[in-house]
Amino acid sequence: MSGILAVLRRDGAPMTPALWQSMMKALGRRGPDGQTTWCDGSVCLGNALFRTMEDTTPLGLASLTEAGLWITADVRIDAREELHRALAARGEQVPANASDEALILHAYRAWGEDCVTHLLGDFAFILWDQRRRALFAARDHFGVKPLYYAQTADAFLASNSVGALRRYPGISDALDEDAVADFLLFGSYQDVSLTIYAAIRALPPAHTLIWRAGETRPRVRRYWTLPTDGEIRYKNPDDYVRHFREALGRAVQDRLRAQRVSILMSGGLDSTAVAALAHGTNLASLRAFTLDSRHYARKEREIFPAREVADHLGLPLTVIGADGYTLFQGWERPVWAVDQPLADPLWQLSVDLYRRMAEHGRVALTGQGGDPALYPSRNYLWDQVKGLHWRGLASALRDYRRATGRWPPLYLRTRLTRGHSNSRDRLRPPAFHFWFQPDFVQRGRLPERWEAWRASIEQMADAPHPLRPEAYANLSAPLWPSLFTRTYDIETGAAPLEFRHPYFDVRVVEYLLALPPLPWFEAKFIVRQALQGRIPEAVRTRPKSALDKSLTEVLAKRGGFDTLAIERYLRRSQIIFGRYVNIANLSKAAKAVQQLNQDELEQFFTALTLLFWNQNRYRDMEA
Predict the structure, then answer these.
(1) Domain that holds residue 256
(2) How many domains does the chain have?
(3) By Cβ atoms counted within 10 A, which residue in 144, 229, 338, 464 is the most buried?
(4) Contact call for residues 142 and 109 (beta carbons, < 8 A)
(5) Mean pLDDT across the stretch 502-529?
(6) Alpha-carbon span 468 to 374, nearest angstrom
(7) Quick check: pTM over 0.90?
(8) Mean pLDDT in the chain?
């Protein structure tokens, strides 16, 4: 998670050394392994290096001086051998052990702005083309790595740190009302280009940015979107499973470029599959971590299947107990500060978990992405009937019956309730709780925002994918960039740890979207088949178990809530947030928290996290 920064002065003046040092200091948490700066007149690039890889020498800031190219990057390039061959075909001679930054520079020299279409992996980079006097920046396909930009009267700036950009004079601290409205309603931004600050924009995933000297604003364009035209059919059903295992195995292998790796492993299939494939690489130092809490309202606690898998694989397992934590613990004077608000009143638990993982090593794998990529197509059979595709219907029924020994589910209840009043009631806005200021409800268009979100949920089956529209809609959701940058980001957790998500690999996603829906995605059948003989049968065949209640809800009902501390924060928040929420009414809700239902609790806690964040958002600026 190296820190990257670029400042281009419009007026041609050089950067003030003191200002540059202040902005680079803000990158400190991202890069503890040294800082590098390159300046040429009015252009400055900086990098704070975070070292994770062993097979190449990461530079952070690199150049092809003969081509007039410089780059600062936070990057892990996958499929390096394939990229080397493609570059060689273009006449680019690149050493086998070239850094990932150098690979991007050669790719840019070979293909120009289209170089991103040849890159796989997680990346955010800023490249300066001195001959064209142009800045070229890009963010990876799913937005795993953050990248932000801003403009003032005298400069254009880009960085993966909001805190670094805020230190530049002329960057306003005014909040973006669209971002505030989205956060208060959903806990994340529905527009992936938003940040909490009106003056700072996020480059969306799978987009590039080009800014040329003399232009008034940058040009932002999309370079990739989820495919809708792939279709893979094998005669032998075993080929589906074998190729899935190979694709996910490659994704895991590419993310194991580190000396020591942690795996955030629950008892579910997705993280278990990652653990099994990672363990099969003979990596010397691999350790699993899992959370355990008696507060979870489960019939079966996740710790037991996680321990079974770890024992079966011979994988060391560290169990982090969640008992004893309270809501908003540590938030009044946190030892960590975050650039943007987090809708998680138990964030201290995550911070402690991440720090324990960082003691083992700097890289962590997750199973994130399994649920959306493997989501079943519940309308597929009915669509075959509606379209009179009798051959396709017969084939799907036959394949499912052969593979599982039973007939597929028809999801009659889902179809009967779709669009029904009871279904709509479930997604109805919670009356825009009495703690919202009435004028903000209108000014922020809260009813319209909620309706747009509700419609997107109800219309998942109408997404533009012929085979797996629900999976397409889930993978396209704005939730994921928010999760990557505000849950797994190094600045958020204040731990030297880089998270990697094998299911969010372009090769894996494109393969899964091209497969027939049945039988492979019903109850994650393809994963269960791929894990046959690799994990205990009791875990492989175990049905997915959902939480009856969230841990935050359980703690709220049991009194794990410091009302006095909340009252102190509410009193101090009147000036800033009184225009969004009625502080007095929010205080009343705090005193009656045990009477709130789950939806009300979620929005109540989201409002409180915004207030807590505001109280601490200037601490990093004071450092």
Answers:
(1) 237-374+472-540
(2) 3
(3) 144
(4) no
(5) 94
(6) 9
(7) yes
(8) 86
